[in-house]
Each structure stands twice: as structure tokens, then as C-alpha cells.
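Chapter summary example.
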Amino acid sequence: MSYRRSFSRTISVPYSGSKSVSYPASQNGGTMTVSYSGTAHENVNVDIYVDTDPFDASVENCNRHVNGLTASVGAMNAAQCAAIAENAEKVSKSLIDGFFHTVRTDLATQKAELEQTVEARLILLRQQAASLREKQAKMSEDYARTTARYQKIFSDLNNELSIRIHEIDQPVFNMAKDIDEQSDRMLHTDMVQTAVTMSKETSILQAQINAATVKRHALEAMTQAKNFLVSKASSERTIQESLIDGTGKDGYLVPVCYMRTDSGKEGTKQKCYVPDYYKAKDRQLEDRLCQSLKDVNFAGNSNAEEEQLKSYVQSEMAKKITGDDSHSDRVRTMINKMLNK
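The structure predicted for these 341 residues follows.
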């Protein structure tokens, strides 16, 4: 069976070169070399026709010969396997029969020998058992006689030692007897219940006293710890409030009171007040502040600031002036009058 195949591919061919060209005279004229390069592309189509009929015929012929050879080889292999299996069966049957016959004979011989050995050993063991029973009976009789004799000897020795010990330590035994009698008399009276009850109550009371002592010591320790923590927290809060965060070159605000009055007759008067701490460090601080604030134009207060100032003055006046006399009323009236101007 023939077949046809078609193939198509684009072939790229690079090219490059140079060429000398002349150009007309615009000013001087002349010749120059021009270089060029690039890639040319061309599509190539190829049609292939293959005739496979002779090859197919030879393959089919070879296939027929191979099939015949396979059939003959299979038949020969089957016959050979059957012959091998038959011969193997015969050989294995002969080996198995001979092996089992040999083993059977060997086992029968060993069985007979062992039976004779066992019978001889059993007869010997019966004789030895009878001899051991006779010896056991004789030893039992001897042990009984010896035990009876030694028991009598030891009993006599014990009685003799008991009598001699009582004679030697008679005062000690008498004292022990008296002590036992006294103990029995105390244990069989009503005082035992009283002693037990008193011991129980005393132990309970002692335990309660010890527990109360421990609780009191614990309360004192907790109180001391509380006082220490309160003192520590107060110290830390005082230190924290006293500290100022900064690098040492920061600026700090100082409260200053500046007053300036303008009148037609006396002119402008101004006065500055600073805390005594800063005033003691610099006596000229108030004068310099007045000089620097002389030309500053202070803006008027807003309504919110005025209300806040009035509220603060009213609260301070209520704290400081608490009397109901005429002097207190007059002072409150004057402050309110000045505050509302």
C-alpha cells in the first residue's frame, strides 16, 4: 500500500555585503561604499510518494514462514514437556518410595531399642522407689525418737532457767507486777474519759491559738507590705511629677503677670510680676519683661474666654469668701462689679 506525504517549511538565508556607488557632484561629488545585510525568507514545499507494495509482500511471506515455525516449535515443546513430566513422575515416585521405606525401617529399629531401654529403666526405678520408701520409714522412726528425747531435755532446761531467773530478779518482777496493777486500776476508772477529753480540747485550743497567731503575723506583714507599696507609689508619683522630659536644652514656660494702664493724666503705666524663685535669680527680670512687652498689642478676650474667667473667679470667690457679714457682701459686690465691666 503506497502513501503520499507533503511537507512545507520556510527557509531563512542571511546575506550581507558592501558596494561602492558614485553620486553626482552637488558640491564636490565622489564615490562611497555602502554596506548592506539582511535575511531572505523562502517557502519550500516538498511532495513525497512512497510505493510499499513490494515490501508489504515480502513482509507477509516472512510472516507465513514465522507462523509455521512457531507452530512446529510449539508442538515440539509440548511433546518434550510431556516426556519430561512423565520421566520426572517416575523418578520422584521411585525416590519417595525408597526414602519412606528406609525411614520406616530405621524408625522401627529405633523403637525396638527404646522399648527395651525403657523397660530396663522402669524395673530399676521400681526397685529404687521401694528402697527409698524403706529408708524414709526408718528415718521417720529415728527422727521421732530423737525429737522426743531432745524436747524433754530442752523443756527441763527451760523450766530450770525460768526458776533461776525468777529467783535472781524477784524484786524486778515484783515491781513490774505492781506497776501493771496500778496501770490497770487507772485505765479502768472514769478519769480516763476526763483525761482524753481534756487532751482533745487542749490540742484544739492550742491549734486555734497557733492559727490566730499566724493570721495576726500575716495581717501585720500584709499591712507593712501595703504601707510600703503606698509609700513607694507616692514617692514614684512625686518623682514623676517633679521630672521634666527633655534633653536639657528645652525651653520652659514661667507664669508672668503683666499689667498696663492708660490714662490721660498719668500716661501709660505698666508692671510685671514673676515668681519669687525666678526674681531672686535675676533682679532685672521684671524690668526686661516690661520693656519687651511695652509695644505688644494684646488682643481682647473672646466671649468663651471671658465666660471661663468669670466662672473661675466665681468659684474662687465662693471658696475664699464664705462669710455673710456686711464686709463680705461688700467685697463680693465690688468683685462682681469689676468683673462685669
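To summarize the output: The mean pLDDT is 79.
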